[in-house]
Amino acid sequence: MARFCICQQQKSSFLTLSQDERSKRLLEAAADGQVRQLELLIQAEANLDYQEDEGKTALQKAVLSNSQDFVELLLENRPNINTKDKEDRTALYFATEAGHYLLVEYLFRTGIWGPALHTASATG
């Protein structure tokens, strides 16, 4: 019961933040491996497609950190999987480039096609 109360308090504190701030924290949680914070920020409706200065999204950061759990959690909440960073790279590109082949397979199984596939194969 105490854990539930703490989580509700954390979620409530996220709700007091601006949409922009929640989205920035989502990026940090995805990059730093903070599962619970990532879940709470998703529940607090952080923008899953928010892009930081280099254009990376939470999904791209989760792929770069090779975290299948995070990638799965994010994809369950339907971010735009074909979003490109400022250098025209997608989540699939990052997974392929880094040799995270289990993530590449997972991204394909979840239906990642079209521009993401073209970007990954055109540069490799």
CATH superfamily: Ankyrin repeat-containing domain
Give the ordered list of helices and strands.
HHHHHHHH
**Major β-sheet profile:** none
Number of helices: 8
Indicate the CATH architecture.
Alpha Horseshoe
Topology:
Layout lengths: L1 H14 L3 H14 L2 H9 L14 H7 L3 H9 L14 H8 L2 H9 L5 H9 L1
Describe this structure in words.
The structure is a single chain. This protein has one domain (about 1-124): Ankyrin repeat-containing domain (Serine Threonine Protein Phosphatase 5, Tetratricopeptide repeat). Helices cover about 65% and strands about 0% of the residues. The protein has helices at about 1-15, 20-30, 35-45, 60-65, 70-75, 90-100, 100-110, 115-124.
Keywords:
124 residues; mainly alpha; Serine Threonine Protein Phosphatase 5, Tetratricopeptide repeat; 64% helix
In short:
The chain is mainly α and 124 residues long. It has helices at residues 2-15, 19-32, 35-43, 58-64, 68-76, 91-98, 101-109, 115-123. It has a single domain (2-123), classed as Ankyrin repeat-containing domain (Serine Threonine Protein Phosphatase 5, Tetratricopeptide repeat, Alpha Horseshoe).
